[in-house]
Design brief:
Number of helices: 10
Keywords: Membrane, Transmembrane, Transmembrane helix
Helix content: over 70%
Organism: Pseudomonas abietaniphila
Strand content: under 5%
Distance between the termini: 35 Å
Structural class: mainly alpha
Order of helices and strands: HHHHHHHHHH
Radius of gyration: 21 Å
Number of strands: 0
Largest sheet: none
Protein name: Anti-sigma-F factor NrsF
Length: 213
């Protein structure tokens, strides 16, 4: 067999690369994560009874904006890190901006409040369970997002896992906003972010084990 014939035979069985595979996998993963977190929230916690009233207030949408901003930034990072040799990119600035805005708004709210109400604004009524509830609701996201990552070729496994965990936690927090009764910005700046930090840490820990290829 001639060399040219051998090359033609080997090349003939190569399937074309699906350039849209990354977008397809992560689109499906995000939809499944968001839907799974929502259904889990409904089954375990339920929707707050005054939700129709609260959705007509800007403060409620400000609460949703925090995890939404972090979800956008972490999705940006995780889709880059799903490819070999890629950095996290500019998504980290989106995440940092979301955290900075909520901290500045929380600090402003505390400075404007009466001194004897500030502790209550930070701790609310659910501080003992908030972060753990968010982590629980992130379970569907961990499953679907890490499935999407495993189908690609990440090389920075710890960082990819951390960003995947942050994405799962962010989507879980959006779902949790439909249940959580807390409406003080300082509360979100502490306990929501603690739940997101837990999800990120879990992702960083399991990433090198689950995403190894």
């Amino acid at each position: 067999m001639k060399t040219d014939d051998l090359i033609s035979m080997l090349a003939g069985g190569v399937a074309p690369v699906d350039r849209g595979l990354l977008a397809k996998r992560f689109s499906l993963a995000v939809v499944l994560a968001a839907l799974g977190s929502l259904l889990l929230m409904l089954a375990v916690f339920g929707v707050r009874p005054d939700l129709p009233v609260m959705t007509r207030t800007p403060l409620f949408w400000g609460k949703v904006a925090l995890p939404l901003c972090l979800a956008i930034g972490s999705l940006w990072m995780v889709t880059r890190l799903a490819r070999p040799g890629m950095s996290a990119g500019s998504g980290r600035w989106v995440v940092s901006a979301g955290v900075l805005v909520v901290w500045l708004a929380g600090l402003y709210a505390l400075l404007q409040a009466e001194p004897d109400t500030r502790v209550a604004m930070i701790f609310g009524k659910t501080w003992r369970t908030c972060a753990f509830n968010i982590t629980l609701l992130a379970i569907p996201g961990f499953i679907s997002i890490f499935w999407a990552l495993r189908g690609m070729a990440p090389t920075r496994l710890g960082l990819a896992g951390a960003c995947g965990g942050l994405l799962a936690g962010s989507l879980a927090t959006i779902a949790y906003c439909l249940h959580c009764p807390e409406m003080e910005i300082p509360f979100w700046g502490v306990w929501y972010l603690l739940g997101l930090l837990l999800s990120t840490a879990i992702g960083a820990l399991i990433g090198p084990r689950v995403l190894r290829w």
